[in-house]
Structures are given as C-alpha cells and as structure tokens.
Amino acid sequence: MKSLGKLVKELLFPPRCAACGKLMSPDPSHAEQALCTACRKLWERELRRQCPCCFLEYSTCRCVPSSMKKHGIEQYVKLAPYGDEGKATVTRRIVLGMKEHTRARTLRLLAAELAVTTEAAIAASERARQKNGYKEPLETVITYLPRGKRSVCRTGVDQARELARALAAQTGYRFVPLLKRVRDGAPQKSLSRRERVQNLRGAFERLSDADKYRVLLVDDVVTTGAGMSECARVLQAAEIIAVSVAFTEKKHIK
Q: 30 near 39, Cβ under 8 Å?
C-alpha cells in the first residue's frame, strides 16, 4: 500500500505514460505505474516478438550479433526492437522519452524487466564456468556506455548511466563507472555501420581495471553495436554481457 503522502502527490500531480504521455489516474495497487493500460498491452506484445536465430522471445533471447561477439561480448540482454521512424512502437517512444526526460518510475519499470533476463544470463555464465573447472564465482558489476558531452549538456541527463543505476538497485550488483567518454565524434545517427566504428575509435577511456569482473555493459539502445564493441575492446573485462532496452533490427541498419 502506498503511503498517504505518495498518494496525495499522485492525486495532485498524476503520472504520465512513458510512451504516449497520457495522464494516468493514480492506482494504489500499482506503485510503479509507468505505462497506461493501452501502451502496456502493446508493449507486452512487442516483448513477445521472436528472435529469428534462437526463436525465443526477444525479452529472453541472449543472442549476440557477430560484430559484438568478436570483441568479447558473451551474451546480449535486450527487451524489444526499436522500430523504424515510420512505426512509432511503444519501445521506441519509451527510449526517445528517456533521452529528454528520464523519470524514475520509467527506469524502475525497465530495470525490473531487464533484471529477469540479466539474472538468467549470469546464471548461465556461472554454469559454464563451473563446467570449465572454475570454482570461485566471478564478481558481477554494472557499468554503462557514456553518452557524448554535447548530448548530456543539451538534455542534462545520461540515460544509460541512470538505467545502469536502476538495474544495480534492482539486482543488487555494484554500479561501477568503468568508462569515460574522451571524445564526442560526429553524430552516429547519420553514419553507416563502418563509419560508426571509425567514429567511435578512441572515444572511450578505461577508468579502472576490469579483468577480474563480469561486466554488465548498459546502454539504452543498440543500433549497429559499434559503441558496445568499442567499449568492450577498451574494458578488457573477464566477461562482458551487453544490456539494452532496445536494439535496431538488421533490416533497418544502413
């Protein structure tokens, strides 16, 4: 049950849907109400879409694109496809909304969804380690792919950092900033896959050693995987699991 103070606050300032922006009626039974009923139904449908490689729902699939795998990323946890500009999916609206206004209730919703598959990925990793003769479990920490300085200055928030913190709070794993953005480069949106890779080369710097950690590397959306790949190359962690809310399907990548 919500406290009286929280209920009064929501009556005075009703929450807005993280996807469509619609005002929602306060619901005492839903402490983390972030989506309206209509958007929630649509989003659950998006979460159930199947991966063409493993045939699992994307929200439980851990398949890694080859461009990320060759840089040491062992598993990739994601929720749903981002969708193209002509189709305003709920996932796309949530991610775009996070770039401008990162609300706590939205972060908690996403972290709760990601935590389920993340825990499954870590459990699978530990089973593989035991099979290979490792007796001690690998410590898991959470870090993020830092946003460009210009973007942070414009919006005042790094959504990947806030998402990583929310995931740490949800799972109990330590949040450790392991990377620093040292160069912005050109805006990634207008670049091809090859140009994105070149644009991000040397854009990140490792803040501390990660060779004894399993690192959950968090971003809001993965397009070509160039950012994740470059961060993995810089980190040189014992193991890396990429984590994002959304990803761009290959057919939408130039």
A: no
